Structure formats: structure tokens, C-alpha cells
Amino acid sequence: MDSHLKEIRITSSLAYDGHFLKVQRDAVQLPDGKETSREFIKHPGAVVILPLFEDGTVLLERQYRYPLERVFIEYPAGKIDAGEDPLSCAKRELQEETGYTASEWLHVCTIHNAIAYSDEHLELYLARGLVAGERKLDDGEFLDVFKAPLSDMLNWVREGKVTDVKTVIGTFWLEKIVTGNWQLPA
Question: From which residue to which does any coiled coil extend (predicted)?
Fold first, then answer.
């Protein structure tokens, strides 16, 4: 159906092989037959956890993000390890970063947060039945955990206080779920 838009890979090479990220450089043929190059970040994927308490508050993190040199408010999240099941990753990350475990998990959606320059995908999960426990932060990981009403999150998004794309999208999903406007499959 969209074949008139497809680009065809001619050659592919690894332009940069870092500890966490890899940059791919491909020569491609455009739909009009011309050739060009595409560079993009290879990413293993990640999970985002939307921890919702029975009282309607959400569990959040404050974490410094070096590329933008500031602290961001975010939902718990983390990179999927090679061969790791995304739900297992979500459960692991929630416990490691916040100390909480959840008795109910539902897959919300998959998002692609940087389609122009990365193959990264994020799997969003709703976590309910939260029980506090002890955090097990990774070495070199520093973050604060706190609770806030969903209404505050919506205001922070509107005011530009929350700008992290996974957190903005997760907040909009939570609003639809909590108000009953969107149902998740069981």
C-alpha cells in the first residue's frame, strides 16, 4: 500500500559503537531512484511504568539528565536488556528504582519517541496494587521518588514543567484510563 514511500537499504555499516548507543549509517535508494544516506541511533528498547495508587496518585521520579543539564520529573523507566521480556524488565525497573512492586500489570501501548533518528521503542505498562519495598538502584544511578496527584501531573504538563515525552504520553494515557474514557484489554 505504501510502497511508493519506501526507502531501500543498499549498504549498512556501524558508524559508532558505544557502551549504550550505536549509530548506524546506511546508504539507501529513495522512492524516486536517487541515493542518499541515513544515520540513526540503534536502541534496544525500553519500558515505562505508570504506577497508579488506589487513591489516584502516581509514583514519580526526579532525575538529573546530563544532555539537557537539568532535573526532570519522569515515570520509572529503563532499558530492556538483550533477550529480556519487556514485562519482566518493567517489574525489575520498578523495584530497582522505586522499591515498589505491583500485583497488577497491563500493557498500555508501544510508542516510538524519536522516529527521525532512532529505532527506539518504549513499552508502557500500567502498574497497580503497589506495595512499598527497598530500592536497589544501579551503581551510578541517583534519583528521588515521590507521589503526586494525577491532576498535578496534568497541570505540570500544561505548564511545561513536565516535558519528557514518555511522561507526557503516559500522563495522557493515565487520564483517559482513570476517567474511564479508554479501556485496556485485560
Answer: none
